[in-house]
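Backbone-to-sequence.
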């Protein structure tokens, strides 16, 4: 098993030719063939206790809302328990092929965002769990999400099992495609929405094209003006401030606001020079704690309202950067004992590597003993409503996610080792990985029922 405590890029630094790395992958396959890699290992742990270990470190007043979100269905539960799956993956067989992982590559963590040139892109967009690890961990996380979300949508089990094989095949094909390109071709490859739209028109009968067009339209309208209108107001003094919505959105104390003002100076040192100079013309005028998502709901997330010297505004999101879940398993100790001030830097470093282009405001800061990463709030951001997808659209969406995951993995110098491994594995790998996925999905369903019972009884 590849263990990872901090993001050390040197772990994937190799001084071998592409052909040598592919050959290493073939040899890795001989040591850990498909049948061995996909042999399901029963997990032995108390899921409720592990979740409780995570919950005790979250904001207590937000726990009821977090639990409500997690218990919506099995996929929502899965989204909120990345740490539980990391615990379980530690017990599985590993390829021992290291790459830079997303760490939480479920299908809800892909979405639209703007490049620095204001082009709309579609790619992985959550890197809180990014680390160096075995490539198949990301693929497993993706596949289980495909099965659970599809089942919650009412798609038939037989069709979903077949889809799991196709999604795995899409990942294999994308690895082969990426491996066939030269280095600079891959480096400049961009997941532009225009290319996604062309793929949609070629491969579907139209039931996915309209949802795509609707999401694109919505994402491009998600600008600063819309954010200010929805989340702020003018107070009695004519000053723009955030709107409170207790307990989800609450103003911080003056002392906490002062800490952010100090940390803001450090944040400016982590962004590109042109953004640094731009931010010199802004000051923080309001701060609110504002929780989002499922997995991160209950952690410390904030919105900063910045006011410029011309009285215009900017809104930044500040999210707590916790250590990756695998770094404090088995969760017997308080998470603060494992906290590393550099966690925010780990996340933005991984995001800038794995995305072809990233939010220009992406940076990090430390406030006290806690680490945070920063990005622009909701600027040209959007995602698909998975629950409203038809079957044809869902199939295409999941295969596109697999393709993007493969290309993200190929940013790592070690990726040709995956190429060699999968060339040896062949088509049989798809069905074997699908079988592993269904078994683990059953474990998630069992854990979901136990956690629901615990919440109801307590």
């Amino acid at each position: 098993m590849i263990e990872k405590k901090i993001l050390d890029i040197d772990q994937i630094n190799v001084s071998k030719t592409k052909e040598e790395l592919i050959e290493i992958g073939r040899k890795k396959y001989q040591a850990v063939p498909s049948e061995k890699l996909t042999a399901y290992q029963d997990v032995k742990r108390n899921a409720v206790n592990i979740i409780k270990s995570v919950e005790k470190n979250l904001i207590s007043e937000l726990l009821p809302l977090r639990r409500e979100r997690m218990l919506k269905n099995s996929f929502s539960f899965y989204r909120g328990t990345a740490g539980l799956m990391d615990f379980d993956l530690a017990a599985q067989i590993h390829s021992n092929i290291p790459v830079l992982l997303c760490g939480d590559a479920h299908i809800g963590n892909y979405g639209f965002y703007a490049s620095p040139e204001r082009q709309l892109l579609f790619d992985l967009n959550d890197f809180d769990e990014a680390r160096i690890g075995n490539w198949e961990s990301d693929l497993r996380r993706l596949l289980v999400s495909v099965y659970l979300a599809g089942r919650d949508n009412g798609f038939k089990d037989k069709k979903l099992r077949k889809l799991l094989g196709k999604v795995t095949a899409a990942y294999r094909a994308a690895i082969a495609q990426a491996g066939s390109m030269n280095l600079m071709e891959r480096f400049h490859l961009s997941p532009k929405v225009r290319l996604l739209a062309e793929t949609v028109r070629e491969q579907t009968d139209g039931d996915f094209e309209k949802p795509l067009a609707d999401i694109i339209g919505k994402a491009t309208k998600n600008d600063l003006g819309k954010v200010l209108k929805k989340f702020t107001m003018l107070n009695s003094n004519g000053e723009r401030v955030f709107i409170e919505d207790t307990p989800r959105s609450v103003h911080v104390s003056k002392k906490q606001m002062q800490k952010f003002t100090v940390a803001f100076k450090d944040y400016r040192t982590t962004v590109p020079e042109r953004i640094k100079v731009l931010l010199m013309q802004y000051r923080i005028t309001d701060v609110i704690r504002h929780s989002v998502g499922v997995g991160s709901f209950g952690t410390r997330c904030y919105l900063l309202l910045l006011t410029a010297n011309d009285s215009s505004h900017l809104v930044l999101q500040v999210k707590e950067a916790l250590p990756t879940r695998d770094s404090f398993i088995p969760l017997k100790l308080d998470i603060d004992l494992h906290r590393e001030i550099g966690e925010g830097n780990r996340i933005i470093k991984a995001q800038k590597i794995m995305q072809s282009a990233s939010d220009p405001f992406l940076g990090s800061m430390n406030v006290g003993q806690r680490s945070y990463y920063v990005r622009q709030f909701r600027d040209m951001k959007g995602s698909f409503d998975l629950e409203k997808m038809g079957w044809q659209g869902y199939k295409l969406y999941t295969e596109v996610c697999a393709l993007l995951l493969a290309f993200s993995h190929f940013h790592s110098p070690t990726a040709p080792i995956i190429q060699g491994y999968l060339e040896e594995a062949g088509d049989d790998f798809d069905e074997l990985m699908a079988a592993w996925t269904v078994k683990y999905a059953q474990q998630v369903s069992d854990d979901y029922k136990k956690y629901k019972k615990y919440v109801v009884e307590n």
